[in-house]
């Protein structure tokens, strides 16, 4: 029993360190490959907002060439739900209380 606890006390921090190190390595590689914190390359697609509806369904607003596209993502893929002109300064826009109308809404 004592041998088991000794192994546990030694191996548990080692495994935790390996997990932490692999996460840091993944972040570093993602930044190097152009992901989050990348080299500042211009992207043609940008995720404006994303909301999880259920464990398998997510709504996302994508900005693509001056358009905002509402898509639903699931295990079956992406489904385009609506499209509208991009709002100016969507990242800095504050809530004015007026609802944003998608193209085709009454």
Describe, in plain words, how this protein is organized in 3D.
The chain is an alpha+beta fold and 106 residues long. The protein folds into two domains: 40 residues; 41 residues. Strand 1 and strand 2 form a beta hairpin. About 6% of the residues have low confidence.
Summarize the entry for a quick read.
The protein is α+β, with helices and mostly antiparallel strands and 106 residues long.
- What is the makeup of the main sheet? 4 strands, antiparallel
The succession of helices and strands, N to C, reads HEEEE
Question: Which value, in Å, is the CA radius of gyration?
Answer: 22 Å
Distance between the termini: 72 Å
Tally of DSSP helical segments: 1
Strand order, largest beta sheet: 1-2-3-4
The average pLDDT score comes to 81
The figure for the number of domains is 2
Structural class: alpha+beta
Helix content: 25-40%
Inertia-based shape? elongated
What share of residues are in beta strands? Answer: 25-35%
> How many E strands?
4
Quaternary organisation:
single chain
Low-pLDDT sequence parts: 92-97
């Amino acid at each position: 029993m004592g041998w088991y606890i000794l192994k546990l006390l030694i191996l548990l921090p080692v495994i935790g360190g390996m997990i932490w190190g692999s996460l840091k390595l993944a972040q570093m590689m993602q930044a190097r490959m152009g992901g989050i914190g990348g080299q500042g390359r211009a992207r043609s697609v940008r995720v404006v907002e994303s909301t999880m509806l259920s464990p398998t369904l997510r709504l996302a607003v994508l900005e693509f060439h001056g358009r905002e596209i509402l898509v639903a993502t699931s295990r079956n893929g992406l489904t385009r739900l609506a499209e509208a002109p991009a709002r100016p300064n969507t990242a800095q826009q504050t809530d004015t209380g007026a609802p944003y109308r998608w193209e085709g809404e009454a």
